[in-house]
Amino acid sequence: IEKAGDYSIEVELVGYAAQTLDFTSDGTNPVVFGFIFLSESKGLNASDKALPGFLNQDQLDALDEVQEVSSLLTAAWDPFLSNAQFNFSITRFRPRGYDQNHSLIYLNGLPFNYLSDGRYFWSLWGGLNDATRRQYAQIGLNSTDYSVGGIAGVTEIDMRASSQRRQTRVTYSLANRSYIHRLMFTHSTGLMESGWSFSISGSRRWGQEGYAEGTYYDAYAYFGAIEKEINASHSLGLTFFGSPHIRGRASSSVQEMYDLVGSNYYNPNWGYQNGEKRNSREYRRHQPVLLLTHDWTLSDDTKLVTSFGYQTGNNGSTRLDWLFAPDPRPDYYRKLPSFYTDSPEIADAVGVKIASSIDEQQVQWDEFYRINASRSIFVEDINGDENNDSFENISGYIVEEQRFNNDKYVVQTHVNTQLKQNIGFKAGIQLQYDKNKTYKVLDDLLGGSYYLDIDEFAILDFAGDNDRIQNDLRFPNRLLKEGDVFGYNYNIHNQNVNAWSVVDASLRKVDLSLALSIQQTRFWREGLMQNGKFPDNSLGPAEKQSFLHGMAKAGATYKINGRNYAYLNGGFMTRAPYSRFAYLSPRVRDDVVTDLTTEKIRTGEIGYVLRHPKVNARITGFFTRSDDQINTVSFYHDEERSFVNYAIRNIDKVNYGVEFGANVNVSPYFNVGTAWALGEYYYDSRPAVTITQENDAEVLIQDRTVYLKGYNIGGIPQVAGMFEVEYQNPNFWSVGLSANYFDEIYIDPNPDRRTSAAVEGVSKIENPDLWNAILGQEKYDPGLTLDLSARKSFKVGDSFLYVNLFVTNILNTRDFKTGGFEQLRFDFLGKDVNRFAPRYYYAYGTTYMLMLSYRI
C-alpha cells in the first residue's frame, strides 16, 4: 500500500462467515495479518468471484466524482440468508412465502428441480455435508452464470473434485433429532501438479428412536469425484453420489388425540409387534446421481461449459392398506370420543379407554396378524369355471409401498463471455427429461397368504360388475404375493427445452441486467395397467400436452459509492402447468383438467445494501402476483358419498412484504446479527372446482365457486424475526445466543369448506358462530424460541480439531404450532367442523447437536 491511511479488508470464503479487518498503513512497511481464522456459517455463502477493491473512505468519496464504483456482487454473503437459514427452519419457513418450486437448485451447473412439480429434495445428497459445502446463493430475481434464475433465487452446489478443499476430515455428531449418531469421512486432494483432483466422502447416520416416539433413522451416503485439467483450455470432471436411507416417519394428528395421549408429539404411525416398536410409514429412498462436466476456456474472456446429469433409483413410502376391513388408523375419527356427540356416556368411556391403553393409541400389529390368519375369502374364477372357484386366505390388512421413482436426464451447454470490458454476456440451452414412475408394491402380507388386486370402492358402487372392480383387466382377480406391483402403475413423461441469455452492463454509477428465457414443456401419461373402470383410456400412451412459456427479467443497481447500493429488479414469466396436478386421476385414467393454461407471474423487488467494515445489511421490499395456478387432489367426499377427484383452476396468489438482515461488528469480540421477514401472503381469486368420481367419468359438479379470496396462505409464518449476539474470543472459541419470533401463521384452508354448499342451511344472522366456524381461518398463537451455539477450535501440530454445539429451543417450548392443515373431508350434513378436525404439527422442544471434527 503506497499511501498512508486507515483501511479495511473483508475476507469471504464459501461456507464461512465473512470477517472484516481494520488496519492502518504508514505507506511504507508491509502489513502482516498472520493467520486469519473464519467461523463456519450457518447459512449459505455465495460467491467465488473477486470482491470489490478495499478502499479508505477518502478514496470512496473521490470515486463518486472521477470513476466507476465497484459493482455490488449480489451473490456475496447475504446477512438475511445467513441469519434466517438456520434460525427460521423450525417453522418450515420459506423466503417471501413462495412455494418451493420458485426456488431453483443446481448441481454442478445443472438444474435438479423435478419437472413434474418443481420441487427438490435435500435428502438426495443428505449426509454429504463436506462434499456440498461449496454453495452459492443468489437471492430474489438475480441471474447467475448458469441460469436466468427464478423469482425466489437460485442455489448452486459445486461438487467438482477441483472445488473440494484439500483435506482429510473425520466428523462425529451426537444429536436428539431425527437421528442420534452421525459419522463422516472425507478425503480430497485438491488440484495436484499433475492436473488431477480426487475427492471421496461417506457417512452413516442412525438412531433407533428420534425425538418423536416410534421414529428411527438408518442412512448411508457416498460421494466420489475425479477431475483432470487436461491443459490450459480443457478440464473434464466426473461426480457421483447417493444417499440411501430408511426413516420411520412421524405424522400430524388431531388435537383431540394429542390431549388424550398427553403429548403434542403423539405419533399415530407406530405400534407394538411382539413387544417391539414398528412404524407403518417408512421413507425408503436411494436415487444415485451421476454428473459429467467439461470446461473449455476458449480465451481469457470466454468460457464454454457443457454438463450432463443422470439420476435414477427408488423413492418409496410405506403405509397400511386394507380390504373388506375397518379403517385401522388409531386416530381415525370414528374411534374418537368426538364421534359420539349424541352419547356423552359413550364418548367419556371411549376417551378413558384411549387415554389408559397404549394399544388403543397406536397401530395394533398383533391384531392384524390374528385377523389375517383367520380370513378365508371366496374367490370366483373370472371365466366362470366353478371348478376353479376357491377359498383363499386373503389378508384384510397389509403394508404397501407407494413408489415415486424418477429417472432424470439433463444436459446444458452455456457460454460466459466478456463482450467488452464492462459488458458481459451469458447464454445457454438446457434439455431435460424426467420419467416419473408411480406404482404400488405389496410390501408385507402381515401373516396372510394373498391379497386381491381389486378396487373395494368400485365393489360398493358397481355391485355384480366384475370388470369394473379390476385394477388390471388383463389379470382379473389376481392373487398378490409380496413384491407384486398392484393397484396402479403408470409413467408421467416430462420434457423441457430451455434457451436462455443474460446481458450485464457495468457503467460508472449504474449496473444494468437483462435476462430472457424461452421454454417448451411437454408431458404425457403412459398407463401400464388397464383399469376396469376406464378400459379405453388407462393403458398405453396418452395425448401429449405442450406449452410454450418463458421469462423476462430486468434490473438496475445504483452504486451510491463502494459501500452503498440501491437496486430495482422486475420480471414477468409464464410457467407450464405441472404434470403432477394436470391429470384428474392419473392412477386410473389419462383425462386432464379442462382448460389447462400457463401460470402467469409478475414480480418486482426494490432494495438497499450496505457493505461496511462494521455493518453488513440489506433491506428489500418485494411484490409477486401469480395467476392461473391449478391443483388436483383425491379424497372421500361425504356429500357425494364417493371417492372423488377434486380439480381446482384459476388459483391466484399475492405475496408482498419486506425482508431485512444485518450483521454488526460491535467490537473485535462482539457481533450482532438480525433478520426479519414481514409479509402478506394470500389467495386473491375465487377458483372454480370440478368434482369427478374416481370410479366414473361422470362430472358430479362443474365449476363450483370456491370463496378463497382473502384467505391467508397457510403453513408458514408471515412474520419471522431473529436477533443474535455472538462473542468471539481471540483464543479461537465463540458462543452465540439468538432469540427467534414467529407470528401470523395460519392453517391451510380446505377449499371444499369455502363453498356455498358448506354453509347451505346455515344463517349468518341467526347462527353467526357456526357460520364463522365453517368459513373462518384458524390463526396460531405466536411463538418465541431461544437457540444457543458454541464453537471451539484447537491446533494440533499441522491439524485442527473443531468442536461445535448447537442447542435449539432451549426454553423447551412444546406448545408452539408450526403448521397444519384442515382435512379435505367435511360434514356437509351435520355442519360439524370438528367431525374431521384439523391436523397439527408442533415445534420440537429442546434439541441439540454436538459435532467433533478432526481435519488434517
In brief:
The chain is built from 9 helices and 43 strands. It has 856 residues and is mainly beta.
Could you give the topology of this structure?
Blueprint: E1 5-11, E2 19-25, H1 57-66, H2 79-87, E3 104-107, E4 110-111, E5 135-138, E6 154-157, E7 167-175, E8 181-188, E9 196-207, E10 216-229, E11 234-242, E12 245-248, E13 253-254, H3 255-261, E14 270-273, E15 276-279, E16 282-286, E17 289-299, E18 302-311, E19 314-322, H4 344-356, H5 358-361, H6 365-373, E20 377-379, E21 390-392, E22 397-420, E23 423-444, E24 451-452, H7 456-461, E25 479-480, E26 485-506, E27 510-528, E28 539-541, E29 545-559, E30 564-575, H8 579-582, E31 599-611, E32 615-637, E33 642-665, E34 670-683, E35 688-693, E36 699-705, E37 717-729, E38 733-745, H9 768-775, E39 783-796, E40 799-808, E41 817-821, E42 839-842, E43 847-855
What attributes characterize this protein structure?
856 residues; 28-stranded antiparallel beta sheet; mainly beta; four-stranded mixed beta sheet
Description:
The chain has 856 residues and is mainly beta. Strand 9 (196-207) and strand 10 form a beta hairpin.
Distance between the termini: 34 Å
What value does the average pLDDT take?
90
Q: pLDDT below 50 for ≥5 consecutive residues: which ranges?
A: 40-70
Q: Give the fraction of residues assigned to helices.
A: under 10%
Estimate the global geometry from the Cα principal axes: globular
